[in-house]
Amino acid sequence: QLAGLAVIAFGLWLRFGGVMADFASDKKSPEYFFMGLYVLVGAGALMTTVGFFGCCGAARESQCLIGAFFACLLVIFAAEVTAGVFAFIGKKVAIQEAQKIYEDIYDDYMKNPGGKVNSTIYRYHLALQCCGKDNMEQQTGLPCPENIQKASNCLVEIQNVIDANLHLVGIVGIAIAGITIFGMIFSMVLCCAIRNTRDTI
């Protein structure tokens, strides 16, 4: 249950907090770009629910509930492994999609510097601590944060941010997968212990 709550909190933080939230808040951002995070939150909710039923099964010494708990953990484990594989395979596509979002906003700003996109591109620059698509963009009058000492390429920063977040997801996924394996082992041990006790009686 604690692991499930941790996964939910982590998924919500990635979706609504930090730099990734700036991509989500833009209308150009496609929903499928964050589908992996929705799956992560859903898996966390499922783990919390399964953990509750596992506790009930252990308290009642019910082989049926503990067996169902094991089956659910097996499904969650398989889903985690599958999601992890797809996350790393789709990393390049995710980076290209995020960079395209920024390039579209950049092009809109260059066409109409005084329009609504002005605040949007500034929000991106502030979150990523970058300015434009190359190191000389500050000379073109882009809205860049004043505290940037050296302007960096926003396309490179987008790649760095997604790489860092995927590494976090990978670490959390491995940790949760380990907990899931231990949960399956202990559930089988408990189920066998209950069966042996009943056979003895």
UniProtKB/TrEMBL annotation:
The record, for InterPro entries, names: Tetraspanin/Peripherin (IPR018499), Tetraspanin_animals (IPR000301), Tetraspanin_EC2_sf (IPR008952)
On whether Hydrolase is a keyword of this UniProt record, the answer is no
How is this protein positioned relative to the membrane?
Answer: Multi-pass membrane protein
**Which organism is this entry from?**
Burhinus bistriatus
Q: Localized where? A: Membrane
Give the family this protein belongs to, as stated in its UniProt record: Belongs to the tetraspanin (TM4SF) family.
Q: What is its main location?
A: membrane
Query: Is this entry keyworded Isomerase?
Result: no
Gene Ontology cellular-component terms listed: plasma membrane
Q: What lineage is this protein's organism placed in?
A: Eukaryota, Metazoa, Chordata, Craniata, Vertebrata
List keywords of the entry alphabetically: Membrane, Signal, Transmembrane, Transmembrane helix
Tell me the protein's name. Answer: Tetraspanin
Residue spans crossing the bilayer: 37-59, 66-89, 168-194
PANTHER family (UniProt xref): TETRASPANIN, TETRASPANIN-2
- From which residue to which does the signal peptide run? 1-21
Q: Which Pfam families match?
A: Tetraspanin (PF00335)
